[in-house]
Automatic annotation (TrEMBL):
Residues 67-270 form the Alpha/beta hydrolase fold-3 domain. It comes from the Bacteria. Gene3D superfamilies: alpha/beta hydrolase (3.40.50.1820). This is Acetyl esterase/lipase. It comes from Actinophytocola oryzae. Coiled coil: none annotated. It holds the Pfam family Abhydrolase_3. Keywords: Hydrolase. One of its GO terms (molecular function) is hydrolase activity.
Amino acid sequence: MDPELEAFVPLFPRSDLTDPVTAREGFAALAASAPAPDTTDLVIEDRVVPGDVPVRIYRPLQAHGAIVWLHGGGWVMGNVDTEHPWAARLASGSGAVVISVGYRLAPENPFPAALDDGYGVLTWAAEHAAELGIDRDRIAVGGHSAGGGIAAGMALRARDEQGPRICFQLLNQPGLDDRQETWSARNFTDTPWWTSDRLAASWGFYLGGRPATPYAAPARAADLSGLPPAHVTSAEFCPNRDEDITYALRLLQAGVSVELHQWAGTFHGSQAIVSADVSQRQLAELGAVLRRGLAQ
């Protein structure tokens, strides 16, 4: 493990997801402790789009493209406030409009609530591109962890339903496979922040006892052809690692243009430790990759 990251591991709170309300409070406190981003170059607006979905919109000057961005938190935790430090950095680093989605959380709102919220925001963004000051052909989807899985599901749904055009997918350590049968899922059972118990609980809450569909768990999709170009990242010490790498390889085999970056020495969500050099490089790369993806 990267030594700068490893030094922070003993400081992490030990918690599980047996009580979602308590978990949300701890997640919010952890997010609040992150260094505040520089937002002087951004116009930030909170709105509620049709479907009563809260969004926070980050507008850099002279932005031409946008990304509908879904936060992490195991489908159970997080909102536009906890995602603020990362959405703002992504907007500044990419020069793109970032539409951060406050989707409904499980277990109160299991699948497909979060997917429906994200897809509704995508549709709204495409319909209001002129108002947002963006090119409707330059709208990407993306997210971290659970949000990355939702974004991948949105891309599948948009393809299948001939929905809004998505030009790019930015999938950062996405949660894609509920089966937990990969080598990393079976062996990284107690890695920092994201353990096998938390992973199993989060999938259980998200699926709500129903069988997983490809829109909920995109790794289950039989056909990945016709999807937008993608950038997929994985963390070395993360249960999700192998499902992320496999998904990227399957996209490539289906004829989709893909960049894959496996970050050595990292663990799930470790880019939040912004004092570490590797975290700074991860955050900078997300912005640069999105800028390139929207320019294609």
